[in-house]
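ok here's C2 domain-containing protein, seq below lol
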Amino acid sequence: MGGCFSGDVRGGTEAVGGGATGAAAGQGQGQGGPNEALDHFLQGHGLRGLYTPLELSFSASKLRDMDALSKSDPMLVVYTKMDGRLEEIGRTEVILNSLEPLWITKTMINYQFEIVQPLVFRIYDIDTKYHNTPVKMLNLAQQDFLGEAFCNLSEIVTKFNHSLSLNLRNGSGHALQGTMTVHAEETASSRMAVEMTFHCLNLDNKDTFSKSDPFLRVSRLSESAVAIPICRTEVINNNLNPVWRPITLTSQQYSSRDDPLLVECFDFDASGNHELMGALQTTIAQLENLYKSKAGANFYSKKGQKKLKGQLFLDTFQEKVQHTFLDYISSGFELNFMVAVDFTASNGDPRTPQSLHYIDPSGRLNSYQQAILGVSEVLQFYDKDRRFPAWGFGAKMPQGPVSHCFNLNAITNDCEVVGFEGIMSAYSSTLYSVSLSGPTLFGPVINKAAEIASHSAQYGNNRYFVLLIITDGVITDEQETKDSIVRASDLPLSILIVGVGNADFTQMRTLDADLGKRLQSSTGRVATRDIVQFVPMREVQGGQVTVVQSLLEELPGQFLEYMRTRGIKPQPPQHASAPPAYPPPPPQL
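and the structure came out like this:
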């Protein structure tokens, strides 16, 4: 692993993926959120990013009775829908003679925030002659169909108690007698984390005219000995005895206490060609023992060829349970979606097929429509009223000047529209009521979104805002945009930017702090945190990861970082009062 696989995806001196928080913690994402170093590696190798494992439980009520001399014997089958195909992921046991089944068998599923995960549930009455057949071997075509129900996984996890009741329907969509309830529960392991503080002594100096600038990188070793980066400390300049800020590793990152980890120390180089200063293999359990013993562990040269004098020490080691993204969402926290669309002339005349704004009569979506539909389909379930502010910028108004922030909803002149259908309708109608103009300015729409987020934060802390900006070109107010983003970094707000068309988006990447340098305003103020994610559509289309996944993968981490750095905790669960399960004992005489 010498040289450096750039798990150093930011290419800078900030910590990555180790749960760094607070203004001093630089770019590190909130603890337990998506890990950029790992996601970058997994996506580069055609693998999935991080997910949250959930356990689904099922019950049903008032099922149809299909048996003549007894009650139905129900079994439930769970499917996911992928690319229009149903894929079975679990079956319950068969419960005999029951129209109110409470199944014991659970189904495991991996929740991924950035995609829509449709679920289908089908209930069957199992014929008596098949009762001794293992459920996996049952031919469903030979059983009586009691009904089916549909939902998206995000509809379940956004409920206060993670439970969702659904009416049963037949194969044609008509209502049938009976309901079913599905309950989702996070596994306890997804909340476990370890916070550690490292320091080193006597590192070998790799520089000629000064001391090395060391940082640590922690990787998980797969069964095939592939090192998968999971976090990196910040760089300590000009120091051979560095002390780093604490890092936090979640159980999803390190898998188990006894799984092998690789800890490498590098001398930072701005070119990305970091020089290995030493490495050692360990586990979470061994790191805990190292902390308790107060001893140091020696580094070794590349591939363990030589024991080095440099040593690794642990100053703190603390296991803890932490709140997850789903803890917040299921307790009533919302993600409120907003969108801003580029109506500058560089998009081309909307009436011609060459235009990026062309509305195809065949129904084929243009790039703007694809981005609006894809992101809003995911986020709509996290916004309770599904009323979305929608703006345009860069167009000349009828009988008016060029506006850099105008409402798409011209009917009521209200900035909000209802549902993603409302956004799509308002976008289409606006194309023919304004004149495309310019220049391209982001500042006004970011300031408007920040104003809404700031106003909301004054009256409560359970709403987080997400602004989607779709643009075809280079902004002309770069510094003003940076100033707006820096001010907004203190607010419950994230900004997603999609670049459409073939413009040179190099300038746009500076707004996304993934290159390791936080944005700085014209007054010298540095952004509190990274709130921008930029994705050029042409570079993602056709790949294994969709534009929407690329846009949304950092959002849970940005949400968690905001909440945790401000000490905002999920609301306690609300339990409805229920009668006691058993009557109280009689009074003693």
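fwiw Confidence is low (pLDDT under 50) at residues 1-11, 20-49, 576-581. kinda neat tbh
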